[in-house]
Each structure stands twice: as C-alpha cells, then as structure tokens.
From TrEMBL:
Source organism per UniProt: Bradyrhizobium guangdongense
InterPro entries reported for this sequence: DUF2948
The protein's name in its UniProt record: DUF2948 domain-containing protein
Domain of life of the native organism: Bacteria
Pfam families tied to this protein: DUF2948 (PF11164)
C-alpha cells in the first residue's frame, strides 16, 4: 500500500507538544457521543475523524480522513460549554487545543486544557499535569467518525 502514511501516535506532556497535536486535529469532526468522560479514571477520550494533514503536505489535493482517539489523563474536572450532549449525532468542528498553565506559570505542572470548537463550543479540562495522547485508529472510510465506546 504505497502512499499510506504510518499511523500517527503523538504524546503531549507540555504546551509545545500540545500545539503539535492541536495542528493535527484542526478541523477534525467530533460527535458528542464520542466524547467520553471517565471521572473515576480521571480520563477523557474524544473520538474524532481528523484530516490527514501530512498527506496534504505531500501534495494530495483532497486530504483523507482518519479515525483517531484523543486522550487526556490526570483530569481533575471536565466542563463543557455550548455543546449539546443531548444531540449526540451533531457534528462538532474542532478548531484546536490550548493549554493554560495554572496561575499563568509555566513551571507549574497543572493547568487547563481547552478544546475549542467552531461556534463557541468548548471543553475545559482541569489537569494535575498535561498528559495527552493522539492515536490514529485507521482510515475513516465513511467520513463520519466512528463510535469508540467500549474500547480499552
């Protein structure tokens, strides 16, 4: 299978790493039903259909979509704004992810990660320390994303 980029697996432990992940998930499609908050595990998992930006850089006109899972660990609290969890199939467009260190101090491990969506939607995660992972799960043949409930 030529031209298939290897499956991406990125880990972010600081704001610079997170900026890289943010670039890869820009314009990803997320369904509220694929946002899974596991309070007991201090973990948030977001299933998404992301654009393969690296393939676009290789000159492919139409970027393919990949099914990916974005995971945050050591999450103390999770709040959402302008996201209708009662409409689980509504597609949310992820604009990017930001990290705001606690008290604005970079030497503090804790802070808040913000997942920003188009039209003012947002998820705010208060974290003990930043621990985020983006893992590709394969090509998105349908272009809609996929339910990841029950994984792990």
């Amino acid at each position: 299978m030529s031209g298939m980029s290897p499956q991406l697996k990125l880990i972010a432990l600081d704001a610079d790493d997170l900026a890289v992940i943010s670039t890869h998930v820009q314009d990803a499609r997320v369904q509220p039903s694929d946002i899974i908050w596991r309070q007991g595990e201090k973990r948030l998992v977001v299933g998404m259909s992301r654009l393969d930006w690296e393939q676009t850089l290789d000159g492919e006109a139409e970027p393919r979509r990949l099914v990916a899972a974005l995971r945050f660990d050591r999450v103390l609290a999770c709040k959402s704004r302008n996201i209708d969890l009662g409409a689980p199939d509504k597609i949310l467009d992820l604009v990017g992810i930001e990290f705001h260190p606690q008290g604005g101090r970079d030497d503090e491990p804790g802070g808040s990660a913000l997942l920003l969506f188009a039209h003012g939607g947002a998820i705010r995660l208060d974290v003990e320390c930043l621990e985020c992972q983006l893992t590709d799960l394969g090509a998105d043949e349908l272009g809609t994303g996929v339910g990841i409930e029950g994984e792990g």
